[in-house]
Automatic annotation (TrEMBL):
Region entry Disordered, spans: 13-38
InterPro entries given in the database record: Cycloisomerase_2, Haem_d1_sf, Lactonase_7-beta_prop, WD40/YVTN_repeat-like_dom_sf
A Pfam family per the record: Lactonase
Protein name: 6-phosphogluconolactonase (Cycloisomerase 2 family)
Sorted UniProt keywords: Carbohydrate metabolism, Glucose metabolism
Family under the similarity heading: Belongs to the cycloisomerase 2 family.
Keyword field contains Cell inner membrane: no
Amino acid sequence: MFQGHAAAIGVPVSRMPARTHAQSNAQSPADSHAQSRTAPRGLIRQIIKGIAIMASVAAATTAFAQGSTGAAPAEASANGVYNLIVGTYTGGKSEGLYVYRFDSKTGDAQQVSVAKTVNPSYLVVSKDKRHVYAVNELPGDNGPASVRGDVSAFGFDAASGQLTFLDKVSAQGNDPCYLSLSPDGKYLFVANYSVAADPGGSFAVLPIAQDGKLGQSVLTVHHEGGGPVKGRQDNAHVHSTVFSPDGRYLFTQDLGTDKLWTYRYTPDGSRGLVSPAEWRYTDVKAGTGPRHLVFGNDGRHAYLTSELAGTVSVFNYDDGHLKLEQVEKLAEPGFKGAVGAAALHLSPDGKFLYVSNRGDANDISIFAVDQTSGKLKRVGRQASLGKSPREFAIDPSGQWLIVGNQNSDTAYVFRRDQETGLLEANPKKIEIGSPVDFKFVAQ
């Protein structure tokens, strides 16, 4: 088990500077296969750099209902009006985190506040809706490797739509890009993509105090290894940290090593707070670059975007194990341009899956989900009407899908047909600098 402050996992490889993940232009093959395998114990290297972790939180005894971030799904609003919090890249037209009033009856959004902070490119909302946590993605493309990214905590007043800065702590790595809450809400897990080869991809565990403030990392886990795509897989790149539906396992998707690393989450301290599963990881095809993972509403299936290959994969899920069942290309047949699979989200009823594709494609693929097998059937494709649709969100009513075009300074709100899953033409446009993440919160 892990009892220290940091651990390195995997096989050391030579390290080279890695291309930024903000926009992909890889053109890797789309087909992939996966299998779970057991690694020899000799491949596990632990480095203890601090005091032992002591956790007093009781283990969860009920299923963990969660979205892709581990946060509870947004509650329905009595009047159909929600807060829409938007994360951005700053340095251009954006100043930080923006809050809009979103009317699900009309699809209209009106800005009500902004909280200045650097590169809040991914955010998560606490389950009580009183706090918002956002990465500060640094150093970015051209910053020095010595610069570590941060995570900022904000108080949130849903009634007024105002964010109040609480504190900021180190993410213990470069380029933090994803956040998830532990099932008990006591810890915030942050994925560090790490453009810089040193320290390389990692994830850190930050304790959350009762007042919503963050403590310094109690555990940092580094991955080691790489993949065949030069400039993108020269070292590890942890791109997301996702808990299983029952809250017992943590999956960390590593674009650099082509692995879905699997950890047990045991807050009762029986195995340490986080410890490697016996089978260690699920492999995906070399060079595909796994990015984001979400679980289906039934908890029996999981869906994965592979950024470099431009694909979405379907897995059967059982007690921490993932078994590949299907791989679908996102680009149109015969497409020759650059691809870059990014986000994926299910409709609230779980009947449709939407996946964004950047590069030269700049669209959202729409799939119907078989409610028995979990497999996907394409039903449509919608242009994002801009460049680099990194993230998007579906409002809790299921009537609207909002997508941000990072490199076009626009977001579009599409009306969604809940019977067919298709997105209607003539969406509403929002002018906003480098929008990259969206979260809905009931008032």
